[in-house]
User: Fold these one by one.
Assistant:
Number 1:
Amino acid sequence: QVQLVESGGGLVQAGGSLRLSCATSERAFSSYAMGWFRQAPGKEREFVAAIARNGRSSYNADSVKGRFTISRDNAKNTVYLQMNSLKPEDTAVYYCAADPTAYSNYASTTRQAYDYWGQGTQVTVSS
């Protein structure tokens, strides 16, 4: 079982920034496509961003384009989500996820593709 541990969430004012991290001790991390998803109260879990295992391709939801950036450091077994210009509607629990089956230069934007999930970290944006 792959363990993913998110950190970096918290309370921030609108317009502020946070950087989420997701780390694993799994040596095969560099062979996983990684994604970030979020779930607000009463809503479905939705795609935020994803990055291919080689780091050369990344994808963002329309709602976060130009504000959020996903990146990864395979030497540190860590994926990041830099969130700038935060809005109250970004308030949610953020989850990282790993897909061990994706091609090297591709990452899925659908949650069904991801086999392993972290426990989530709360992000709250106040207006």
Number 2:
Amino acid sequence: QSQLVESGGGQVQPGGSLSLSCTTSGFSLEYYAIGWFRQAPGKEREGVACINDRDNRTYYDDSVKGRFTSFRDNAKNTIWLQLNSLEPEDTAVYYCAAAPPDDLQAMCEPPLYEFDFWGRGTQVTVSA
């Protein structure tokens, strides 16, 4: 059974940092690109970063560029999303998803790309 499990969420003050991880099992990660998405209450799910299958080439949404960094280690079946300089607007449930590699920008931007597998998400709350 293919699974993705996010962890590392929590509550942090504005300007703080969090490190999210996405641990995979049941499929060969090296053949999949990974998307990081978030969904705030009452809003559409949006892509924040999409990382290529076998290197760390990543597309970032403009809203997180320069603040978030994604990297992966296929041998450890894990992908990370480092969140720095967090803002209240970053508050959301963060998800990772896997799909065969494609144009990374197309995978991240609306309309929502058809990923093969999704995790259940981890909550990130940014408040004073």
Number 3:
Amino acid sequence: QVQLVESGGGLVQAGGSLRLSCAASGRTFSSYVMGWFRQAPGQEREFVSTIAWNVGRIYYADSVKGRFTISRDNAKNTVYLQMNSLKPDDTAVYYCAAASGSALLSRLSRWETYDYWGQGTQVTVSS
């Protein structure tokens, strides 16, 4: 069982930056694939980024590539999402998620692949 708690959301002007954190419980944190998703009002949950530390792979959605950076600190059981050059279209609730380390790489952008979810943190970007 893994419990995830996000923090770091807030209100920022366009062009600004935020860093989201996701603290995970459990001694096997390093074995999990960790991802970030977001959901805007009236829209489906959207893949943002994922880090499969065990195979050295990082993926980003095209919409955030070059602006967002995912990282993890296994010693602190924490995954981060550094968000730069934020746009109003980035406004959403951001969710941290964990998937088994055996999950198929081809499925890591699908929310159904992830077994555990945080409660979400609101990010609002004003124009």
